[in-house]
Each structure stands twice: as structure tokens, then as C-alpha cells.
């Protein structure tokens, strides 16, 4: 069986026709850019129509001339949207990078703190919990409240456009702050009430491998495939990468991006302030997720700031090698070049122990040392003994990170290319 996989991110949409048996791409991977709009401080949104057009462009590039028997979705999470009675967008797609709701997140944490954490699995993060962002917007725009018919995340919105039906998967529901993740695994009357979200706006919660319905004729043409084929709801991109890897209880997923994401299955999930605890999104299992704030983007930043005269291969080869050999004297502390996704308050980075003799190799050595140190902190926050059997590495800068982490010399390292895209194939294997 061959299916069309859609992977929606903050900067691009990717699409590929996958062989369901092994998740390999059949033909080219279609790509189309998305433009993250930052129209005011701490805003980070995507235009819905532009995103829809990018999905069509990437899909047609991948599907032309291919036999396609189903469609599945992987998406950035959370990215939320409100729709009116005609299913027209009342808001853009508000991404997890949007931090405008910090004041409300701070208030919810102060007033409800541990109760919120124990029930939802997470702190009331201003970008990480979409219900916080939605409530904050409605406080600024109360006129919208009477017009809202639906509150959706990205894959539910796409499912609605593709089939006329919609739902939340459990992974995305865990990213709302409106869902009793650690208890009944249903929408929470309490947290919906606290955040002023009408339960009628929320669709049912279904496993991400459930079929929403057949592909509508008008949207089939947009994707360049046949109408009537089944559409799977899908789930969050990290969860899809875990599905692609076929991870077991002693495996670790390590995604190198703007920040570094570490994820593992959690047989005994326990919420904590220094990690995310949520459902995988397919079935009823749970995962723990932590972050190293010094990610691959920090290396790209160093390249552009201090090593612009070097090509990428020279920087990631010669310059990184020299920095790894250099004794660490400068220190990157605080380390938050990409912010901190697990904190309500904004975090910034700073170099210390600088002198007139400090050169660019010293600064790079400090960044590499920070990656190493904060990786250990993130591993400890996962709440598991450090005895993984396999580590699945994915993302830009993964090769450099593999060199840095001493623990990885003890474990089997596997590169996972296009994991969030390839994992969509697993939705069709049930």
C-alpha cells in the first residue's frame, strides 16, 4: 500500500508518497515554504490559506504519477486555530513559538500550579499549551467568542478540510491544557471553565491512526490524488518520528533543531516541572519529553556570526574539530540562545569568562560545552536510568551532537532521516 504523508512545520510543508510496509519514500519529497509571521513582539503565526496552498504545492510535487491509497498527517504541535459557523478561520494558525500569553500563563501557574500540572501533565506554558494562548486572545478580542464554532489543532483543521470531519488526537489534546491527560483522558470541565473554553467548540478525541473519512473530491484535486481514499487524523511530529523509529521502552529519540528534544516512552508517566508528560497520540501510551536549550540553531548562529568566511562543510568540519580540541575557558551561561520551551518566563543567553584573548574558537568551544552539559540535564529530567539501548538521532547538526555526547559511545546510534514524515506510514499499519 502507498500513502501520501503530509508533514506541516513552522518553516515548510513536506509531502511524500510512502510505502506503508517500511515507510520509505516512493519518488520525490515535495517541499513548499511557509512564512512564520511575527507581526508583534512574541507573536509567531502561520496564515491558514498560505499554509493550505503550500500543502497543495508540496503534495502535487510528491504525488504526480504515483498510486496513492490514503492520506495521513504529521504536524507541528501545538498549532491552534478558531473557526466560525461556516468553518472560516477567525484566527491564524498560532504556533508553539507564540509567547504572547505569558501574563495569563503566569496567573494560571500562581493560582492553580500543581493541580494543573498533575491533571494536564504540564505547566501552563504560554506556547506549549494552546488553551492558554486561546484564552489570552479572547481576553483581548472578546468579540470573537460569540462567533466561534470550532477550536482545533493543525491536524484536526486539515482533517476537516480534507474530509469534512475533525477530531483531536490524544497527543495534541495533551497540548491544550483543557484535557485530563493524567486522569480520565477526556476534556476537562474544570480546565475548560478556568480558561473560558466552551466544551461545544471541542471535537472528540480519537487515536491518531483512526480514519476521519474519505477524501473529498474538491480537496483531492488540490492534493493531486484520487477522491474517496481514507484520511488518517495523524498526530504531532515528535510522535510520528517515534513511530517511524519503532521505538521500544529502552530507546531514546534525539531531535536536533532550534532546541534539542529528547523523548522516550513512559510506562509509568509522572508529571514534573522540568519535562512534558503527554500521550503519544496513537493508542493510549504516554511519553516524556525534555529539552536541551542549546540546539542545532545555536551552531548555525555561530557559523553566521563568527565563521561566515567558512563554508558549512569547513565550519562543521575543521572549525568544530578545533573547538573540540580547545580547552574550555569561555562559558555559555545562561544557555538559552533559543529560549526555553519549558519555562513561562523569557530566558536569554550570555557568555561569561571572556577576555581580550578570547577568539571565535573559544566561543564555539563554549557553545559545544554547553550542548554537552545541558544534554546531561535533559537526560536526567526524562526520569529514567541512563541505560538506553538505541538512540535515534535526527535533524540538522545531529552528526556534531553525536560526537559531543560521551554517553552515546555506549549505545547504538541510528540516524533517522525525515522521521516525522516517514512515521505517517505507521498510521496505516494497524
What does this structure look like?
It is a single chain. This protein has helices at 48-63, 102-120, 130-140, 154-163, 170-173, 189-195, 217-223, 237-245, 296-306, 312-325, 360-381, 398-404, 419-422; strands spanning 2-8, 12-19, 30-33, 45-46, 71-75, 80-83, 93-94, 150-153, 211-214, 230-232, 235-236, 251-256, 260-265, 276-279, 286-292, 331-335, 349-352, 390-394, 412-415. The chain folds into 2 domains: 2-233, ATPase, nucleotide binding domain (Nucleotidyltransferase, domain 5), CATH 3.30.420.40; 247-430, Nucleotidyltransferase, domain 5, CATH 3.30.420. The protein is an alpha+beta fold. The protein is built from 13 helices and 19 strands. It has a 6-stranded mixed sheet, sandwiched between helices.
Q: Using the CA coordinates, give the radius of gyration.
A: 21 Å
Report low-confidence residues grouped into runs of 5 or more. Answer: none
CATH topology of the largest domain: Nucleotidyltransferase, domain 5
| CATH level 4 superfamily of the largest domain | ATPase, nucleotide binding domain
Distance between the termini: 13 Å
Q: Give the overall form.
A: globular
What order do the strands of the largest sheet run in, or round the barrel if closed? Answer: 14-15-13-12-18-19
Overall structural domain count: 2
Largest sheet composition:
6 strands, mixed
- The number of distinct helices, counting runs of at least 4 residues, comes to 13
At CATH level 2, the architecture of the largest domain is 2-Layer Sandwich
Please state the average pLDDT score: 94
- Classified by CATH, the class of the largest domain is Alpha Beta
Overall number of strands? 19
Helix content: 25-40%
Portion in strands: 15-25%
Class derived from helix and strand content: alpha+beta
Amino acid at each position: 500500500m502507498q500513502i501520501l504523508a503530509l508533514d506541516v512545520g513552522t518553516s515548510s510543508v513536506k509531502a511524500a508518497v510512502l510505502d506503508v510496509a517500511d515507510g520509505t519514500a516512493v519518488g520525490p519529497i515535495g517541499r513548499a515554504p511557509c512564512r512564520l509571521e511575527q507581526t508583534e513582539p512574541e507573536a509567531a503565526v502561520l496564515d491558514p490559506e498560505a499554509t493550505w496552498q503550500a500543502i497543495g504545492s508540496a503534495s502535487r510535487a510528491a504525488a504526480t504519477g504515483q498510486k496513492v491509497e490514503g492520506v495521513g498527517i504529521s504536524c507541528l504541535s501545538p498549532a491552534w486555530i478558531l473557526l466560525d459557523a461556516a468553518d472560516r478561520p477567525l484566527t491564524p494558525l498560532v504556533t508553539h513559538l507564540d509567547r504572547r500569553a505569558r501574563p495569563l500563563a503566569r496567573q494560571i501557574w500562581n493560582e492553580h500550579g500543581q493541580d494543573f500540572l498533575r491533571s494536564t501533565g504540564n505547566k501552563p506554558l504560554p506556547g506549549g499549551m494552546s488553551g492558554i494562548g486561546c484564552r489570552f486572545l479572547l481576553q483581548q478580542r472578546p468579540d470573537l467568542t460569540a462567533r466561534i464554532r470550532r477550536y482545533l489543532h493543525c491536524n484536526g483543521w486539515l482533517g476537516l478540510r480534507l474530509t469534512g470531519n475533525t477530531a483531536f488526537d490524544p497527543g495534541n489534546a495533551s497540548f491544550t491544557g483543557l484535557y485530563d491527560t493524567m486522569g480520565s483522558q477526556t476534556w476537562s470541565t474544570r480546565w475548560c471553565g478556568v480558561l473560558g473554553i466552551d466544551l461545544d467548540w471541542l471535537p472528540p478525541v480519537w487515536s491518531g491512526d483512526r480514519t476521519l473519512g474519505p477524501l473529498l473530491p474538491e480537496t483531492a484535486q488540490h492534493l493531486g490524488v484520487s477522491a474517496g481514499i481514507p484520511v488518517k487524523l495523524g498526530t504531532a511530529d515528535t510522535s510520528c518520528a517515534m513511530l517511524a523509529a519503532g521505538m521500544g521502552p529502552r530507546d531514546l529519540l534525539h531531535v536536533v533543531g532550534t532546541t534539542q528534544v529528547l523523548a522516550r516512552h513512559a510506562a509509568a508517566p509522572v508529571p514534573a516541572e522540568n519535562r512534558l508528560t503527554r500521550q503519544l497520540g496513537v493508542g493510549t501510551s504516554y511519553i516524556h519529553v525534555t529539552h536541551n536549550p542549546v540546539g542545532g540553531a545555536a551552531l548555525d548562529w555561530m557559523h553566521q556570526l563568527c565563521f561566515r568566511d567558512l563554508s558549512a562543510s569547513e565550519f562543521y568540519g575543521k572549525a568544530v574539530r578545533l573547538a573540540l580540541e580547545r580547552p574550555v575557558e569561555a562559558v555559555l551561561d545562561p544557555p538559552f540562545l533559543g529560549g526555553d520551551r519549558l519555562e513561562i518566563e523569557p530566558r536569554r543567553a550570555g557568555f561569561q569568562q571572556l577576555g581580550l584573548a578570547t577568539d571565535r574558537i573559544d566561543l564555539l568551544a563554549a557553545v559545544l560545552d554547553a550542548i554537552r552539559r545541558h544534554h546531561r540535564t535533559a537526560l536526567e529530567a526524562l526520569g529514567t536510568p541512563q541505560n538506553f539501548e538505541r538512540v535515534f538521532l535526527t535533524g540538522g547538526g545531529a552528526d556534531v551532537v553525536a560526537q559531543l555526547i560521551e554517553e552515546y559511545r555506549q549505545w547504538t546510534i541510528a540516524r533517522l532521516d525525515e522521521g516525522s514524515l516517514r512515521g505517517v506510514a505507521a498510521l496505516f499499519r494497524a
